[in-house]
Amino acid sequence: MKSQQKCIVIFALVCCFAVLVALIFSAVDIWGEDEDGITEENCESSCRAVLVENIPEDVPFADNSTSHLPLSQGLYNLLDQALRVVEIVSPLWLLNSSDYESSFQPAARQGRALLSRLQGLKDRKILLRIASGRPDSSELITLSKYAEVHYLNMTALTKGHLSSSFWVIDNKHFYIGSASMDWRSLATRKELGLVVYNCSCLALDLHKVFNLYWGLQYKDFIPTFWSKRLFALFNRDQPLELTLNSTKARAYVSTSPDILIPKDRSSDLEAISRVIMDARRFIYISITDYLPLFGMNSNRYWSRIDGFIREALLLRKVRVRLLISCWENTHPLTFNFIWSLRSLCMEQVNCSLEAKFFRPRELSNGNIQGINHNRFMVTDRAIYLGNLDWVGNEFSSNAGAGLVISQSDDEDDRNSTIVDQLRIAFERDWFSRHTHSLQANKIPICNKQRTNRLAPLKLPHHGNINDEKPAPIRKKEEGIITRHYTDKSQKNTHQDATGGLVIENYQERGQVKTSHHDNKKLHMNVNDQDSEGDTAGQTVESSGSREICNLPL
Ligand SMILES: *[C@@H]1O[C@H](CO)[C@@H](O)[C@H](O)[C@H]1NC(C)=O
Ligand SMILES: *[C@@H]1O[C@H](CO)[C@@H](O)[C@H](O)[C@H]1NC(C)=O
Ligand SMILES: *[C@@H]1O[C@H](CO)[C@@H](O)[C@H](O)[C@H]1NC(C)=O
Ligand SMILES: *[C@@H]1O[C@H](CO)[C@@H](O)[C@H](O)[C@H]1NC(C)=O
Ligand SMILES: *[C@@H]1O[C@H](CO)[C@@H](O)[C@H](O)[C@H]1NC(C)=O
Ligand SMILES: *[C@@H]1O[C@H](CO)[C@@H](O)[C@H](O)[C@H]1NC(C)=O
Ligand SMILES: *[C@@H]1O[C@H](CO)[C@@H](O)[C@H](O)[C@H]1NC(C)=O
């Protein structure tokens, strides 16, 4: 009798165990995916890297300034190298510019050209795989005749967006950078990225990130167990040792957000913190939005990156340069926070924070062309290229990927490494006539349209960077062009009488906030004084502070 009971108990336990194992494996094996024989052991790590940039035609730099391979050319080169499979993640798909856009902006045709190249892959018997967070994209619906498309429901997974932007070709070559599959990235926006050839070690690691997205198709929960195949090969503590254009380097891929990170991978914030911590002499940051708030519409302070910078600046005396974009979505408090960083250096020797904003060209009709959409950081020994803006919720809810490459800074070959090249690109932007120093006691108005919201909104415009559904330029019957805001700004928008979307009370809110934080000297100045040809040394300090020391580079 006793032994019978024992038997039943053991049998029940065995059953439970079997069910558990089955559950675990069902969770894991959804991710099954062959890596076609390339493994951590036999992958290539003598790579070639090429910086690619899109510089809009109307954002000219001096003729003798450095230029890099055009982004479209870099992407074409990658497609030419493809033999088997092209994998693409992009926050949005909007390559097919409308006839109107192409006639207005000839470079917009490059988007169409790239789209037809992608469609041509099918004839070359090359598989095109796309992971997207936008099931409503009409372009992807058309493209699905030529490609396998997997959709992620990021709302259900993280309440965020898929902001990752990279390509992986045959697990061998890859692209990562700020551009998305948007004609504006090939035409009117300033973008920067990196194309890396013959680098299966890193490509394989990025492919694992792609596979994670691929496997999350239509899931509305994040699995508790990740397949071993998704574990990172390299991270900030164990980077890949590689040669890049025959120079020694170390590299790894980072991702966000934390809940989408399987074992061993470093998060973007960990990568950023390490790159900042390792800097000895300088940190140059070029970013579209820099805001130590949890989100654009948030009142929560978010100090992670701001804290890293404060430490580097004040406690380690690393010189910091911040180049941020001044564009229609720039949060008015951005400049208050930057002033606060600047004033940290008061009365401190060898403490230097300089900030400039990249103000694109303003056309005679008051519209802005050529947003600096770059998202990178370069220090004396490393680079970080990412997909996310430096605002809290981007890191906590949006999916993004980053690449860190570090190289020892040899005095011998000062401008041959990728780190040097990126620094030179940053300096070109920094000293160009498109950037402006912050003026004492003045907050630049980056979005004049908002101040004057009853004026008809005119073309040409870049919508929100993550704006996909509506074409960025729309022609209405009467020929009036309306602009559309989505995503982050949607909460502030309402349909106005003329059918266009207009930001509601944005500037007003900004002003209220500003005066709230009070500072008698702070006032909004509509005629922000763009001092042309300003150089770094002239950056003005906030009242009461003294610029004591500028470290030589
Ligand atoms: C480019 O040319 C301008 C004037 O012709 C000169 O002032 C500047 O130093 C040059 N820049 C470089 C990097 O050679
Ligand atoms: C791109 O848009 C044009 C119309 O503007 C349309 O005729 C064409 O089919 C579209 N191409 C693709 C690939 O969607
Ligand atoms: C995504 O998930 C949200 C919340 O679970 C749901 O409301 C929405 O319908 C889903 N979207 C799609 C396209 O499945
Ligand atoms: C990649 O490697 C192949 C074969 O080793 C070589 O033929 C090719 O030129 C390399 N590509 C680049 C961009 O260096
Ligand atoms: C400031 O920097 C200079 C040059 O790097 C160095 O010689 C000097 O000792 C530094 N001063 C302090 C107080 O760190
Ligand atoms: C570095 O670039 C400058 C011009 O920007 C050039 O004159 C110099 O020869 C380059 N040095 C090396 C080592 O390539
Ligand atoms: C690396 O090599 C490629 C191909 O030879 C070249 O186009 C690229 O500019 C080089 N990159 C660097 C950082 O020197």
From TrEMBL:
Residues 536-545 have a biased composition (Polar residues). Pfam families: PLDc_3. PROSITE patterns: PLD. Residues 510-553 are annotated as: Disordered. SMART domains: PLDc. Residues 368-394 form the PLD phosphodiesterase domain. Gene3D superfamilies: Endonuclease Chain A. InterPro entries: Diverse_PLD-related, PLDc_3, PLipase_D/transphosphatidylase. GO terms for molecular function: catalytic activity. Belongs to the phospholipase D family. This is PLD phosphodiesterase domain-containing protein.
